[in-house]
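#onboarding

Welcome to the new folks! Below is a worked example of what a typical request in this channel looks like: someone posts a single protein sequence, and someone else replies with the predicted structure as tokens. Don't worry about understanding the tokens yet, we'll cover that in week two.

Example request:
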Amino acid sequence: MRVVPRLLLLSLGLVAGIGASPRAARADLVVEPASKASFWAPDGWTSATQKRGAWALLLRRAPDEKAMCGLAVAKASGTLDWALESVEAIWKQGPERYERVSKADGLVAGTGGMRVEHKITADGRTLRCYTLVGASGDYRVALWVAHEAGLEAGYGPIVRRIHESLVLPVAAAALPPPVAAPPVSGSGTPQGAGMMFDPRFREGRAADVLVPGDAPLLRGSVDAFLDLVEAATETTLPEADEQALRDGVESDWKKAASEDRALFDDAVATREKAKAAALRGDAAMKRAAIAAFTDALFARASVKPTGPWQAVVRRAGAARLEAFGSAGEPVVSLAAVEAFEELVAFFTAVARNDGARVTEGQRLAVRSEKLKPELEGALPAARKRYAAVPRLWAFVKARWDGADADTKLRLRWAAVDLVRAIAKLPEVPADVRADGLQGYARAAAGAVETLPVFDTYTNVVANWDGVLAALLEGFGVAKNDADSMFATDPLTLR
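Example response:
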């Protein structure tokens, strides 16, 4: 029997304390009586209501049980961050894992708000949850829509319609009626802005306490430890491995041996010493600092090889040493291939303006059928760049996190232009391009409707030169300086 995430249980009305039993609901405008906040609900979705502290919840569930949405309203004077964290606290009362993927400022029902994406995992299932957080006078409002991962093609338009239907009376009264935007091409229906794919690869402050106590674990120490692990293994960890390492350090902290704690206590100072050496071009000093850390790291990892973070370290070291494909010079490691796949997934998401990912089976199929033959036939100069992709991926992540809105928009357009060209879609009209983020979102929606995520991912792999050109354009790197993206020491990027 599968475990249904608590978000779905809320929608079903099965959590203790829910006031109303579920019932079938026709497509209608769902209105919260006190605030008059409202949203459109699809036909046939089951409804339920609940009161959780200050929050009134109006919930809907799809008939196939693969999607759900909800409106949370509270009369409170808290900030938008407070509202988001309060709603997250309600979700996290169950055993499921909620991971915040991205958070960005944006228009919500015509006024300033936040757009947030979460990944929900439970019993082997993964859901994507897209949330708007806004305010209307004394009220704080959150509207979320979640669906199982991989169903973006079917549920993407529903997510957009639900989000675009949100009405906050105070905000709505202050604005003129919205004007429909023209379609991107000469036919078809207009596309709204929808969510903005805007991940953060590093969040929080170095002084944030992750594990309290007499010897607290600080976020800055974990960040530094991660940087040093990647420097020691010459990798850029895949997203899942990075999260496993972070979770492992936190879960192991209170019972960690003194030798393990010393690694973390010294991590910030060691990283800064190695970074300073790299910045001044003292390669010998940098190697010495990293070598000393590497020896201590693998010595501790070997003591408890299946430990929560130790296993990640050992796996990263093995991936760095494992050659991918047939012999060739220079050698392209499995770690480089994994970094390449992470970068392709990111670029695909930017081009589509969503966080949809290919399945594990699809990723491995593309690796075997597309990437492996490409590498086996590549000239040494091309193989050299593939081998250095871990540095390129570290460069892209750091630049994205530090980029201003204009830089991100430039990369967004470069990515969507490439994918639209692959899909043989018409060039984006100048007036749509001039509409900034709104225009980009509409252009990306056209690509999503034409190319499923697997086809987009596959074509991005096959058009690697176009991806590199888009990255150069987006981050403002001169073409004759392209090698710098592959050569910059990751320790100097943050």
